[in-house]
User: What shape does this take?
Amino acid sequence: MNPTSNLNKVEKDLVVSMDYSLTVDGEMVDSSDGTEPIEFIQGFGNIVPGLEKELYGMAIGDKKSVLVPAAEGYGIYDPEAVLKVDRTEFPEDIPLEKGIEVSIQSEDGEVMVAVLEEFDSKTVTLNGNHPLAGKDLNFEVTIAGLREATAEEIEHGHVHSEDECDCDCDCGEEDCDCEDDNCNCGH
Assistant: This one.
């Protein structure tokens, strides 16, 4: 936490509560309307970079329209992230349905999510691009609240609801309070 913080303006390490709407190509694709504002720690990359940088200095109640270019949102569409897999190599326990998400492992061992785009008798086409990759994002935002992040939230890099950690623990219990040395959440 910045010792000079006065909770009046968005700055690094503060928890920001924000109402928003997201329009892409003239179509509303997401909104906090009818729900609680989203909460995130400013400066931790919890939201797209182009939006995060535009929030600095905003105060509670401030409204802003922000155009986030694709490169600062979900990235430029990468044609190399579209993979054609021989159908015989596709796991039989995964249904062949357009739009399902599957986890795949890259050559360097990184696990990523891909969407099944199409299939035929010989191949399955998977797309590892985010659905909004290559798209400019139009946000309407209103800062609904600001608070200091707890030390635990800063350590974990995300907001905890009601001061409870919702990190997954190696013991397999969600929201555990175990004292297992393998616990990822520090409890």
Helices lie at 49-55, 151-156. Residues 49-55 form the longest helix (7 residues). The longest strand covers residues 137-148. The CA atoms of residues 10 and 29 lie 25 Å apart.
